[in-house]
Request: fold
Amino acid sequence: MKIGKELLQQVLMRRKKSDSTAPDQGAAEKTAKYCYYSLLSGCSLEIDEKSRLVILTGRGNRHTRQIGFDDIATCEVIVNEAAILKIERHEEDAFDLETKHRLRTTLRELQHEQMGPEATRQIDIRISGLPESGFLSTVNFYYREGNRRLTDHSYTDTVQDIVKWCGMLTTAMHQPASQSEEPEINEEAVTEQDETTTEPETDRPSPTASRAEDPDTEESAEAAIQEDRNSSAEGDSVVSELTKLVMLKEQGYLTDEEFEKAKAKIIN
Reply:
C-alpha cells in the first residue's frame, strides 16, 4: 500500500488536451483482459454480497463483467494515471482509519491546485485480478477538462465515493465465504426431526399431588416442622434462664457455687 505527496506531484502535472482525451462516452470499452468503465457514460459499479460478486455494467446493461471476491488481487486509486493508493489482498488492515484520512487529504490537496484551460483531472479505481485470471478493470469516477466537469458528481462527492468504494472493495477481498453465504435450512428435515424427538404427553403426577395423596408423607413433614419449632423455643428458654441467672449473680444474690449448680441444671 502506498500513498503520499511524492505521488501527488506526479498527479498534478499538467497535460495538454492533445496528450489526453476524455474517457469514451459510448459504452464501456472491453477486451478479453481489460475493461474500462466511465460513470460519465452511464456505466455502473455495484457489489452483490450474497453472490460474492463485484458487478461492472456498461451503458444500456451492455458489457457486464462480474468479478468474484476471491479473484480480486489489488484495488488502486488512480489520479491522472498515477497510483496514489494500492490495497493488496494479503494486507488485512490495508484500509484503516489512518489510510482513509491520508487518502482524503491527498485528494483534497489536489482539488486546491489551479488548472489551466487545457489541463485535465481524472480519478479512477482500478481492480486487478489474481495471476490466474489476469483481468484488469478500471472505473472512472471523475473527469474534468479545464473549467468543465464532464462527470455528474462534484469533486467533494467523488472523494466520498472513492473512500466508500475502497472500503467496500477491501472488505470484499478479505471476506471469508462463510460470512456471506447463509446456510440453507431444510424445513422438511427440521419438521421431521421435531416430530421424532417430541415425547408423547403422559399423565405424570405432579409433586404436589403426590404429597397430597400420601398421608404418611404429609404427617412426617408436619412432625418435622413442629420439632423445629420446639427446638427453637427450647433454645430461647435456655438463653433466657441463663441471662436471668447471670443477673442474680452480679447483683449478689447468688454465690459462685450456687451459680454453677443452677447453670448446670438449666443446661442439662
In short: The longest strand covers residues 120-129.
